[in-house]
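Pasting two entries for a bug report.
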Amino acid sequence: MNDRYDVVIAGAGPAGAQCARDLVARGYDVVVLETEAEDEFPRQSNKSTAGTFHSMMAAFGIPDDVVMQYTDSVVLESPTEHYVRDQTGAVLEFADFKRYLVKDSRDDGAEYRFDARVTAPIMENGEIVGVTYNGDEEVYGDIMIDATGPSAPLAKKLDIVDLERENHAIGIEYEFEGIDIDRPGFADLHDAMMLRLDHNIAPGGYSWIFHTGEDTAKVGLCYIQNGSHDQYSRDNFTIDDYLSHWLETDPRFRDAEPIEGKQHRGSAHIQAPGKLHTDRFMAIGDTVPSLDPLWGEGINKCMQSGRAAAATADSVLKHDGIEPTAENLEVYDTLWHRDVAPNAKSRLLMTQLLYLASNERYDTLMRDLQQLDDDTLAKANKGDVRAIANLIELEDVPLLARFAKQQLDLDLGSMLS
């Protein structure tokens, strides 16, 4: 077993595995260290709703056989209204998808070490030169990449990220059969991915139903442990309690039964990414979080960041005598802000503002969307300031004032700490 590689990647999720795919395609020696055991990979506790669009499938060469259901539309719901947008997409079997990425890169020469929990960077002269895993085992590389998501053992110890609790999103999802997919009074969810904004179900977050064929669907919710959650949440309610409440009160679930072995949990952070790299090191995927305000699109963001990191590593390693210093890895920052999360600041602000709104405002938003062209929503989701302004009404002035005060309080808190 080697102990030195061109690139060492911590984490075999979509970001890490895609980065490995791109690097081995360029001829580099790559090792991926994954915490989970190979025969359990990926565990049910580490999965995604796995909704994505054809642009991601085509850009990364993802085969049809990891798709549970192709969809024709995206539905947004509020407590009493809904909006339907024609947009083709795909609901992935996330476990098959992750295993495909590992196998594809492995077939091309990437080495994977499972049961390998990365614990810390190995430092020499102030630079990372390798990582330790499983306590005392070591591996060295020219470039190290952290793709471990919120755990971020390398990025945190290198002071690259500070994933704050108030920005921590937790999620739970079950797969069900027996769902009334076309219930009178609701949108038809056949071949659809539905996202619902409703604080009674997901205070400070959203819930979803992703159709996976016939009467089956992925059903889940996610909320952020922030001020909005504190305002709308119920005392002593856990995320499991909120999902149970939704299942008990929504008539679409009256005859629904959970599918055995199809329960998933996960977490992420919704905040500005901060630093992305330093000498010999890059952070990718959910370690430097990004998402679209409405569609989420976490899979695509992770894959894009893995590709950007691979291109950056290649730009340095292919030249003899050029060291992977922070300055020479700066192209990753450029690619990330251009390709992974353009307009990152305005998209984050829209996301935070969206979850502060009341249920009544969500109903108004759905009615507004029915009057606007689809381009407005698409542009707003990409952080276009003019499009976001088109979604704001006079009644939002108190909400905007509250949001501004919240941001000021956060900024002051950061300065004082």
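Entry 2 (this is the one that rendered wrong in the viewer):
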Amino acid sequence: MRFNKRSGIIVAVQGTQVVKAALAFVFFLIGIFSISGAMTSLKPEYRITSDSVNQAANNLNGQLLFSLMGWENHQFLQALPEEYETPKLTNVMFKLSTNISLDDPRSLLGRELPGFSLFDGKILVAGEGTNYTNMPMESAPPVDVLKAEQEAALQNTEDLKSGNPEGSAAPPLSTGDRKAVYIYFTHNRESYLPYLKGVTDPNKAYHSQVNVTKIGDQLKSSLEKRGVGTTVDKTDVMANLSKKGLGFGKAYQESRPVVEAAMAGDRNLQYFIDIHRDGYRKDKTTIQINGKSYAKLAFVIGGEHDNYEKNLALARELHNLLDKKYGKGLSRGIIEKKGASTNGKFNQDLSGNALLIEFGGVDNTFEELNRSADALADVFSEFYWQAEKVDASEQQSTDKK
């Protein structure tokens, strides 16, 4: 047998490659098992979960993704705006690996400070000037504040009025006797400091008579002026909580059957609006538009129910219309709330057309609030009649088929 030296070299090289491949595969398996073992040995709160992966992915917006790709291929950087500043790799990796954003102190403090999660939430759509330092905030009132016999005396109520101006023209479109919008108040006694004599503490801005229900009256009046039939439910949810010995945190548990009964009693109801009042002061809840003062609006979406996407789409449409017709800033944006420290549903699981809207803050006046109610009615009616037009066109197409 004759030995071919060249063939022997080739065989030796091939053998070496096979050995390297085998070793690489072995090290790969060892690495996989090591990582798996490390992950399973961690305490549950430190393990990687689908939620943590989702949170990390939320930090990757389109511009950041182009920046990451641009580090490898500079052509991608041409898609970024000129004013965009490419982030440092160390900052990006820190944010992705820890879910701590230096722009949002809550991402660190919320894990370390007891009770801090009460202020948690996610900005889905940021209105002009809205950030994580001035998101809508509600705090539970002292127990004695919810008792009517201990509430503050009223002041500055002489000019409180709402309703359609006399002799207003009939709207071109109308739902007739049919009610399409249902307005209610889970925190029905949320009030405003200008009308509470001697009260300066925002946490005590509650009253059984002068409160957010008056905004419901104005919104109803303004919607019906535009042909949209509306009903206002003024069930005293706060009084019911007090009678049953339930805390403020059970408010949605108490308002839920009220909404369910309304839905069962009138199948024509299409939209459900829960009106609230924010806890912030006037500098964060007021805006000047054409020389007039308006109370800012904020949309809150519960993030733990199947109707989430539909509710978000509705809020986004109204937010955009407010921006378009009244300028940026009247709407503070759309805030998502979910987790152990909040309700997470806000009765919005009952309908795909449910809204929770914060009207102004503790310092706003009804003059400002009523202007905002009129603005909301303006854009809502525009949205409503456009949606009705689309539904009618689709129904005609179906009938022809």
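Dev reply: Rendering is fixed now. As a check, the viewer should reflect this: Residues 42-56, 111-118 have pLDDT under 50 and may be disordered.
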